[in-house]
Amino acid sequence: MHDMKAIFKKHVKKHKRKILLGSPIIILIIVLDAFNFFANEKTALILLPEPSRFVTVDRSFATTVKLVARTAVNAVGGSIRFNSENADILDVSQKNSIINLWAEEPTFLEEKRGVSFQGGILSEGGFVGEGPLMKIFFKPRKTGKITLAFENPQVLAHDGKGTNVLGGKNELTYVVRDSNLSSPDINGDNAVTFSDISIFLVNWPVTSDVGKYDFNGDGKVTFSDINALFAQLGS
Ligand SMILES: [Ca+2]
Ligand SMILES: [Ca+2]
């Protein structure tokens, strides 16, 4: 055991310079990777929460459907479905859409269990870049999760053959909580991670801003709120 420790120490000492030099590169790669989750080379369809995945049951919320085209494209279509027992669709807006030729304007699927759409982008040389396709407005029915997903999505290349060049798409899950509970996503990065718990602990004991840290809704901030936040880790 001691031998192992000694070997390890010796190795670290010997390679200290390399380890120190290498570490920032590894960290940089991890950070860049996180930023590039959707910004890689793939043409993708993205469901974007506005502004947050963490919503309250008493309020409506919106999802922007966005296209990221890495090569020239001219048509996009598909449908978006969700678990409709937990929410209702209020409206779909095409305002600011990059689609300027609708073959099928966004229409509600049966019993508003989703939205289907099909359209073209009139642009010389095809469309490259990113922009919104539409915005869907929802009203939660109850607390729980609402998951949106694409069904049969297509993004067609401006190549005269209509090749489907869609390389990626995401699923989006909203977490609906009671209106008297604080959002577990303290730093607003759309995930509940150790960073949120760390921020909470930095502010512990909470004497002001009770409304920000009352995760169980009893009007005060106690250890129970730490437990309540831990319970939502990863959501
Ligand atoms: Ca967070
Ligand atoms: Ca509390």
Automatic annotation (TrEMBL):
Ranges that cross the membrane: 20-39
SUPFAM superfamilies xref list: Type I dockerin domain
Gene Ontology BP term (one): polysaccharide catabolic process
Gene3D superfamilies attached to this UniProt entry: 2.60.40.4130
Superkingdom to which the source organism belongs: Bacteria
Keywords: Membrane, Transmembrane, Transmembrane helix
InterPro entries: Dockerin_dom_sf (IPR036439), EF_Hand_1_Ca_BS (IPR018247)
Protein name listed in UniProt: Dockerin domain-containing protein
